[in-house]
Structure formats: structure tokens, C-alpha cells
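Appendix B. Raw example, untouched.
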Amino acid sequence: MFATLILNAYQQVQGLIVETYQDGQVAISVGDKVFKGWPVSSPRSAALYDRKPELGHA
């Protein structure tokens, strides 16, 4: 599985997860380097944010 980590305001790394930690951090492999950090979260589902409000029936 892939994960994306933010290094700073201008750089991100993405690679294969090689280890997960109990606190939620992951280690990913990028070439010959391993980065450890918090994975970038993604919305649960884009459909939840694109829904139109339901009209109530009178």
C-alpha cells in the first residue's frame, strides 16, 4: 500500500509502506531512502461532500 508524507510546505514523498507504528505514523520506502512521518489523510468519500441537501417533505 502507498502513503504520502508531507516533508515541508513545498515537498511531499510517496512510497510503499514498510512499517506502521502504534501512534499512527508510517515508514515508507522511496528508492534507497526510508522516511517516517504522519500520512496525509484523505476524505472518507468525495461523494459525501458533493451531495445536494435533501428536501424535507411537508
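End of appendix B.
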